[in-house]
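Quick log. Single chain, no ligands specified.
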Amino acid sequence: MEKQLHFIFYSKLHLYGGGIETWADYFLKQLSIEMDDTIIRVYLIEPENKQESIVFGLEKYKNIKFEYLQIGDVVKQNTIINFFKYDRAIKNLLRKNLNSNDIIVSIGLLNSGIVLLNRGLLKRNKFITWIRSKSVGEISTYKSKRYVFLANFLEKVTILKSDYIITNGDDTLEYYAEKYPYHKKKMRRIFNAVDISKFAYISEKKFESKLINIAYTGRLSIAKGFTDFLQVADKLSKKTKNFKFNIYGDDASIEKTNLDFITFKGKYEPENISEILELNDIVLFLNRESQAGGVSHSLLEAMASGKLIVAWDNYTHNQVLNINNSILVKESDLHLLEQTLINIKNNKFDIKTLRENAKNDAKLYSTSRHIQEFNEVIKKVSGDLRDK
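-> predicted structure:
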């Protein structure tokens, strides 16, 4: 019987998606090469156009097989209806494809809870949940209390019924281990990775203080610091013309009236990130510790490119950042952030050293190490690797 791994995504895996899509692209490619004797089945919501999905670039890997969930337009449909359709679709496909002792890896906390509500179909298979963030905390910034209640319930189902749990940061690991202490033995952190070679040739241009380009990249959400970025940009743009504030992310739903001090660049594909970093001098990371979690790809990519990084001084960022490779500012202190940017303009920091240290530190987060740690989890879950 052929060996199989099943990866479940509640996503269309669009090229211009977020961290999950970035991760899935490099992870599945590398995993396919290293596990060439294993069938890797990837379950995802069917994209309208495969050429706009990472599927297009992965189809050449012969041991990767795609299984499409036909559940309609999840944006226009009611959330509860989406969950119901998702559960039915994924269970039907798993029933068709699962062999005894196959391992299932579900990406995301809440969608794992949906699948695990009734685990009868999966009783002969091990189920791993890969948590990407503090989902409930982030959801609480934009959803109703009723939805947050449902999210809390699904979180509990996921933690209790998963055979193993992977987080992508020490902050998320400690958060869930403290919240569910009886289940911490089945939890492990695996940091995200970065392909250093993609950023090796970004030019180390001289930092000019006449016009400083400042970037925000990724989801435009409160938990990620989007509103903090807007407030600081608004204040500084009224004081000086030395800064240009650029936002890279899906801004289609943003009301841009009175935001003329921001240059909205729109959504981007992962392959464009090198160009984005090349064009900017500073990258801001303003994730809120209580709502966001894990080490983001954007942060690792900015480090690998040798960019000057300014970030909130919190546990989320300090997993990889420190005073030697970045400029850290007390979380939510917008006045101090504003003053810090002015001090950068006035050459108050050793920018060259900070950039060099960030670039060197990024080497710790290689894709090969990432895959190696995942393989250790698979061996452990399979019973081949015992607790020391």
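The CA atoms of residues 133 and 293 lie 5 Å apart.
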